[in-house]
Amino acid sequence: MFGRLAESNAMAQIMYGLALRHGWGIPPDPPLAITYLSQAASNSAAVETAALSSGMKKGGAAKGELVLAIYELANSFRHGWGVEKDPVAARSYYETAANLGDTDAMNEVARCYEEGFGGKKDRFMAAKYYRLAEQNGNKTLGNSWIWKDKYTPKE
């Protein structure tokens, strides 16, 4: 069903991409999954651009689909699902989704910074994103260190 809808609907493209990536009800085809996830991100971005150019003060017409597609592309690059593993791309996609408000992506990019996945370790940036996730309702247990003064931004 998602395959038929995926020609024109960003959410269907995401769901079909995930089904292809994991083999949910269809034979797995991770490279084709990347194609659908990328199309979903592109189509959602186009909807957002059209909404903003038509006078919307803020986006939102397809923000959920855009963020989800970006987050799932990050997961694909992190794990090598349908593409070569690319830690730098994974961290970049996670950070983009985090900056668009996805709390799961906030935790993932924080972990990337904390562990040095896709770039240098940076506990200050890790604390920033863990704090942001927590402030938006997605707390990770065992992260009390993020509230230490040395990780508080200087204003």
Question: How would you sum up this structure, described in words?
Answer:
This protein has seven helices and no strands. It is mostly helical. Helix 3 (30-53) packs antiparallel against helix 4, helix 4 (63-79) packs antiparallel against helix 5 and helix 5 packs across helix 6. It is globular, with a radius of gyration of 17 Å. The chain starts with a helix and ends in a 20-residue tail after the last helix.
Helix content: 55-70%
Query: What sequence of helices (H) and strands (E) makes up the elements?
Result: HHHHHHH
* Terminal-residue CA separation: 52 Å
Instruction: Provide the β-strand percentage band.
Output: under 5%
Poorly predicted spans: none
Layout of SSEs?
Layout: H1 2-5, H2 10-22, H3 30-53, H4 63-79, H5 87-99, H6 103-115, H7 123-135
